[in-house]
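Q: What would this chain look like folded?
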Amino acid sequence: MTKFLEWLACVILFMFIWLCFVLGYINISKSVNHFMIFLPFELISTILIASLVLILYRVATFRDCPEAYNELRLQIGEAKQDLMSKGMTFDVTLNDDDED
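A: My prediction, written as structure tokens:
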């Protein structure tokens, strides 16, 4: 079973249980029913906020890995030299030593 099918099965199960609560097949108090109506939206909002925070954190700490940064800069330089040896010219040259 692929990851997609596992997630899909969980979502379908959650939606089935949620619909049972909302449609009244499972009796709960009115205060809990009010909470249950908005539960999917609250879960989606929570997941979106957590994902956004994780992405922003990973972007903010990207340069905290100097080995990977130096390796990437080396590969960019090699690719640039390879393209220049094949006749490509660059209009704007970036000084690789200015950053940091």
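The CA atoms of residues 79 and 85 lie 10 Å apart.
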